[in-house]
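Reviewer 2 asked us to include a model.

Predict the structure of this chain.
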Amino acid sequence: MTYVRNAWYVASWTQDLEPEKPVATSILGEPIVLLRTATGRIVALEDRCVHRLAPLSLGRCEGENLRCLYHGLLFDPAGRVVEIPGQDMIPAQARVRSYPVEDRHSWIWVWMGDPARADPALIPPAVGFDDPHYILGRGQLDYAAEARLINDNLLDFSHLSYVHANSFGATEDWAKNRPQVIPLDRGVRVQRWLTAQPGMKSRPGADEPRDRFSTYDFLIPGVLLMTGGSFPIGTADALGHAPPDLAQAESGVTFTSQAVTPMADGKARYFFSWGPHRDHGDAALRDILMTIADQAFAEDRTIIEAQQRVIDGTADPRIMPTTADKAVILFSRLVDKLARAESGEGERTAA
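Predicted model (structure tokens):
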């Protein structure tokens, strides 16, 4: 499937990257080693030694450098070989790719495209554990499925009525009512009111019907940033179904940041955090929400991996869009447009 390369992909939780302990991952089929040096610098290198292609993730940190523990070549943070044991001459081509990397919003972000275009301003504005307004929990799941199938799932919440009837307790209104979809420069915004809605089944005290507003931005390369809140019945009509002031919400103001990273063909990693605003909950509520999230996102994985197996077993897989697919279609067109532009840039550079 097609993916944008000139974008920041989530590679790890920052909390999971311990000092001087290299970690192996892969993004867009490229093996990458992540490391946090003794001074706190974060480095992302091609996970493949130039000598005999052993993984550098099995190596040893030495100061700011990383030593391959097969034959001892030492790599600096730029990917250059700075020492070959028993050999004074170091070839100019003795280097591996170094990726632009940033630590923001409790995630390690890696730029997979042209390093000259690696603009930190393009990092999606997620909410991390350093945000004083929210009490967050976190998790991640590995999928035996294409990342774009997960993106499609997150762009169309009509599935909540059926996939998440037991976890979120979503009514069929999620499937029957279409949200407002607003194109953004690098994504789409999806927002909706659902009136007189019950709360989540597993959340104490949330059964009383409310008007519930939700809004999320889904941004390149596959990052969902969502908030919302609950209001007295009649609020949506009084506002003409325009976005409300969440500071006036009666309850239920939360934030979730979710990121989908394509690791290789048919393999993806899904990162998520969720929790209440400090004015609307505490650590106990966060733990309840995370229990619900664990159940719900496992439900997503079950259906999406099954979908992938059907696609793999179909000679000419085709889909039939519905009106619920507006955000999916707009985002897919944006991905294809940006990918085509990248391909054109590469062709011009080669010429």
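The radius of gyration is 22 Å. The longest strand covers residues 251-264. We have added this to the supplementary material.
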